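Look over this today:
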Amino acid sequence: MDTSKPSTRSENTVEKTSTLFGDPTADISFVSSDGVTFKIHSKYLGAVSEGFGAPESTVIDSKPIALAEAAEVLEVLFQFVHPPFEFHQSHQPSVKDMEINLFFAVATAAEKYVVYGIMNMCVTRMRYELYESHPVEVLNHAANHGYDDLADIAAAETISLPNPLEETLAGLTDPKVAVRWTKYYGHWLQILKFTNNLLQNTNNKNCLGLFNLIGDLLRHLTVNPTNIKMPAWRSACGSALCDCQQGKWGEIIKAEVEAIPKFTEVT
């Protein structure tokens, strides 16, 4: 009878090595979360990254270092660590058209390992493109990594999401940031309450045009409370009194909105 214990490790396991970073002469190896090995020359790590570099006196172990990131993320990251002649491509990858989930994973890893070049590229794309289309992801990244001005811009955009409370809180990874955003959102809810009271308490309730304007404005602010511009059309009756009232509302509401603190100023 065979009494030997079954092996807990496959004998046919084959090490997967990155096609870009598989130099057998490299003196340090990293393994991605999905099992791909990256062989790197340690002399380059400290030059462009604080997170990967080790003190000069450190004795490098031959055992691969396990990292939490997937191979597709590390493959982008390491191309900003090694000089161009160390791998097959002559140019560093562009983040401009990078798939959005990969982009934010790379941006987070760049901050974690302090890879300067790609950190700046990622923040630039967020600042000039993604803050409108992906405000929650941008806010999460900016707030977690100290980009206060970018966090303020993205936070204002989150208010206009179809379901701002649910969508934003689902995408924030730091509980402290989530608490701050909830307080920030509360300021905008107060604007809606203030506006509703202002419009409902108007003295001219007999004008159908003004009544319709009130309804449209409330719907407008509910959908997009950060846009406090009054509807471009004039009241149906053409009354100077109603038109004047509309202008006054706009100024009052605008003043209230401008008094809202920036996201990073909320305590």
Q: What stands out?
A: Confidence is low (pLDDT under 50) at residues 1-12, 229-234. The CA atoms of residues 26 and 40 lie 5 Å apart. Residues 175-200 form the longest helix (26 residues). The radius of gyration is 27 Å.
